[in-house]
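=== Discrete structure encoding ===
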Amino acid sequence: MSRFFKLLPLLAVCFLLTVATGAVFVSGANASVVEFSVFDDLDESSTNFDPDPTATYWIDGDSKLVIGLNSFMADESSVVAYDTLTFTITAAEGYLIKTISYFESGLTSGDQGSTTVATGSLTLNEEAYDLGHHVFPLAGNGEAGWKLFLNGIYVGVDEVSVVITNNLIAVGSNAQISKTEAYLIIETANVPVPPAAWLLGCGVIGLLGIRRRRLNQE
């Protein structure tokens, strides 16, 4: 019986190592960091802001999703262009989506006295962020660029539902405003070390302690 009690610490450490090692292997991360669902145009009656699948792609080195756009423009005949796009971003096992930044840009033009407007919102898991209400008075000096953006929105979860809404408005002679580019920059982070890893570390330290005590006794 005394021999059993002497071996008890060693048996306990071995048990911790077995459980922890299995848990660590089960929770290993996949090679792909993020995946995207099929893009959906919520305003089915409109052709505005429909994503172009051939021009929508992921740049791994920049952690950047470029959203290819079909024609999205307002001019003096249509006045307003409105549409909403939705999709889901899912992080691979072992990762969290830490922050999301959104950028969009386009061109605007018109005669003296005309005005164009770009506005919209970005919604992440039902939390809405205003892109602003930007007015561009025109002086008939050719095309000018415009852009809207939200930088570094903290998310901290493994899945995000994304909704992008836009309004483009053009009022006046030859007024025109178009959206030509839209993209997300997604920063990911490893999930914090799971309890299994701490168990593994404690088990290793325990084995070292037992080994050292035996050496001292010899």
